Amino acid sequence: MSQEWSAFIYLIASVCFILALRGLSHPKTSRQGNFFGMVGMALAVGTTLLTPAVASYAPIIIALIVGGAIGTVIALRIDMTALPQLVAAFHSLVGLAAVLVAAAAFYSPEAYGIGTPGAIKTASLIEMSIGAAIGAITFTGSIVAFTKLQGMVSGDPLVFPGQHLLNLAIGVVIIALIAYFTAMQPAWAFWLIVLLSLAIGLLLIVPIGGADMPVVVSMLNSYSGWAAAGIGFTLSNNLLIITGALVGSSGAILSYIMCKGMNRSFFNVILGGFGQEGGASKADTGDKSVKSGSAEDAGFILGNASSVIIVPGYGLAVGQAQHAVREMADMLKSHGVKVRYAIHPVAGRMPGHMNVLLAEANVPYDEVYELEEINRDFQQTDVAFVIGANDITNPAAEDDPSSSIYGMPVLKTNQAKTCLFVKRSLSPGYAGIDNPLFYKDNTMMLFGDAKSMTEDIVKALENQ
Amino acid sequence: MSNDSKGLKENAEGLAESARDLAGKAESLAVQAGEAAAAKAGQAAQAGADAAMAGGGHSVVIGLTVLVLAIFVGYHVVWSVTPALHSPLMAVTNAISSVIIVGALIAAGPAEFTGSQLLGLIAVALAAVNIFGGFIVTQRMLGMFHKKK
Questions:
Q1: What's the CA gap between A154 and B84, in Å, rounded?
Q2: Which are the catalytic amino acids of A?
C-alpha cells in the first residue's frame, strides 16, 4: 500500500476514534461509539500490516493472537468492582509498549526512516527519548497504582524526608541525559533514561494514598496518551499523535474533575501524603448522642416516605450490596415511592465507577443523578438513604472552615426530612474526620453490614 | 451547379486537411507539455524528498500542529461525555491509546530477525492485550446501561 493511501486510512481511523469518544455523550449512542473505536483500531492495524515495512506475518499474527486471547479472557472475567485495578494494569502495558517501540526505533532506525544506527535525526532522538521516558513513568506508576488498588500493598501514603527533592533531582538528571543522548546517541544513555523514568514513576505514586487513586488512575490514563503521542512524533504518524492527544486530554480532564470533587489542587494530590493527618483527628465523639435504629424502623420510615434519594459510596461495592439496594428500590417503587440515586463525583475508586456498579445491578440510568443535578432536591425529599459513603455527605465541608475537607462539594443529605445512614460503626472516613451528620436529630444510624442491613430492610418492607 | 459543388468539395477537403494538420500539431504540443509536466513533477518530488531528508524540522512542526488541534478536539469531545460514562471513557481511551501497536508492527515487520524485531513482537502482544481487553470491557460496561422499563 502506498504511503499516501495508508496516511489517508490512518486519517479515517483517527476520525473513528473521535467518534468513539463522541458517542459517550449519551448511553444511547455509546455502544455505537465503541463500535467506531473498534473499526478505527482494525483499520489502523490492517493498514500497517499492508505497508511494505511489514514483511514477515507469522510471528506478528502469533503475538496478536496470544495478546488478544489474554486480553479477551481478562476482560470477560473481571469483576466490575475490580475495574480500577484492571484499568491501571492496562495502562502499564501501554507504557511498557511505548518503551519497547522507542527502543526498537533506536536500534533499527532504518525501519522507521529516521536515519541509520548511530546517525539518527536529532528531532527523532528527542522524540523517542521523551516517548520512552513517559512510557516508563506510566509503566511503574500504573503498577504501583494497581498494587494499591488491589490491596497487595497498603493504601497508606509512603512519605519520607527529601522525597520531592529526590524526584526533582532525578527529573533534572533525566532532562540532562536526554540532551546528552540527543548529541552523542549512546545506548547506555537511552537505557539510563528509561531506568530513571521507571524509578520516578515509582516514587511519584508511592506517596499518594489509596483514596486518591481515582486521580492517579486518570492521570496515568493521560500519561499513556502522551506516551503514544511521543512515539507518534518519532514515526511521523499523525494517527498516533491525534489519538495520543485525545487520550491525553481525556485523562487530564478526568483528573481535573476528580480534584474538583475533592476541592483539592492537582499538585496537592500529586505531592501526596493526604490521609496522614488522619491519626490526629478529634476524638470528641463520646459526649454526643447518636440515634440508631433497626431494619424494621428503617423499613417503616422508607415505606411511608413519598420520595427517597439513595446515596451510594464505595462501601456499597465492597459489601456487594448493589443488588440488595436495587431490590429495596424496586420494592419501594411498588409502594409508590419515588426513588432516585445521587452520585458524588469521587464516589467509587475511579471516575464514574458507581454508575457502572449500579448499572450492573440493573438500576436504570435515568434514575441516577449527578451531584449538581440533584443536590437541590434533598430539601423536598423525605428520606436520604446513605450507604457505603461518608465524607461525601459531611456537612462540615460546608459550614466548618477549620475542617480539612472544607469547600469540598458534598451531597446535602442533612436537608432531607430524615437521613438513614448505613454504617458499621462511627469510625471516620478516609479523610480521618468526624461526620457531624451522625449526631443530627433527623439522622438515624443503621449499624451493620451494608448488604445484610439492606436485605433486612427488604424483609421488613415485605411484611408491611 | 456542378462547379459550385466541386468548389465546395475542394473547400471541404482543404478544411479537412488543415484540421488534420492542426490536430497533429496539437498532439505534438500535448506530448511536449506532458513531458515537461512530468519532468517538473519529477523535480518537485525530488525536491520534496530532499527536504524530507534534509530536515525533520518540517515534519515536527506539522506534528505539533496536528497535536495542538487534536488536543482542542479532545477537550471539547471529552467535556461532552456524560459523567455517568466516565468509567467506559477511561476504558475506551485505554484501548485506543494502544494504537501504539502501529509502531510495534513496523518494528516486528522485517523479514530478517533482529533484536528490534523481538522488542516489536513483545510490544505487539502487550498492545493486543490492551486492545482486546479495553474494547471488550467497555462493551461489557455499556451493555449494562439501560433505561427505565
A1: 29
A2: 391
For A:56-95, CB contacts with B below 8 A are 56, 59-60, 63-72, 74-76, 78, 80, 83, 86-87, 90-91, 93-94
- Per-residue pLDDT at A132 exceeds 70: yes
Check whether domain A295-462 has CATH 1.10.8.60, yes or no: no
Radius of gyration of chain B (CA): 32
ipTM for the complex? 0.89
Question: Which of A70, A78, A97 lies closest to B137 in CB terms?
Answer: A78
- Alpha-carbon distance of A127 to A112, in angstroms, equals 13
* C-beta atoms of A63 and B122 within 8 A: yes
Alpha carbons B60 and A387: distance in angstroms, whole number: 53
Counts for chain A of helices (H) and strands (E), in that order: 18, 8
Q: What is the mean pLDDT of chain A?
A: 88
Domain ranges of chain A: 1-77, 80-271, 295-462
pLDDT at residue A283 above 70? no
User: Does an H or E element contain A119, and which?
Assistant: strand A119-120
Q: What is the b/e burial string over A357-396, where b = at least 16 CB atoms within 10 angstroms of the residue's CB?
A: bbbbbebbbebbbebeebbebbeebbbbbbbbbbbbbbbb
Residues A89-102 have a mean pLDDT of 94
Per-residue pLDDT tens digits for B80-95: 999 999 999 999 999 9
CA A408 vs. chain centroid, Å, equals 19
User: Distance (Å, rounded) from C-alpha A128 to C-alpha A240?
Assistant: 13
B126 burial level (CB within 10 Å; 0-12, 13-18, 19+): buried
Contact in structure between A378 and A343 (CB atoms under 8 Å): no
Q: Are strands A115-116 and A119-120 parallel, antiparallel or unpaired?
A: antiparallel
**Beta bridge partner(s), residue A387:** A312, A422
Cβ distance of B85 and A352 shorter than 8 Å: yes
pLDDT score recorded for residue B52: 43
Closest CA to B100 of A97, A399, A305: A97
C-beta atoms of B105 and A246 within 8 A: no
Residues belonging to chain A: 464
Q: Which positions 224-253 of A are in contact with B (Cβ < 8 Å)?
A: 224-225, 227-229, 231-251, 253
Chain B, 69 to 108: residues with Cβ < 8 Å from chain A are 70-71, 73-75, 77-108
List the single residue in B81, B128, B143 with the smallest CB-CB distance to A71: B128
Question: Is there a contact between A93 and B130 if contact means CB atoms under 8 Å apart?
Answer: yes
Cα separation, A255 vs B93, in Å, equals: 14
d(CA A426, CA A435): 9
Q: Quick one: CA dihedral B55, B57, B62, B66, positive or negative?
A: positive
Is residue A396 classed as helix, strand or coil in its secondary structure? Answer: helix
Amino acid type, B94: N
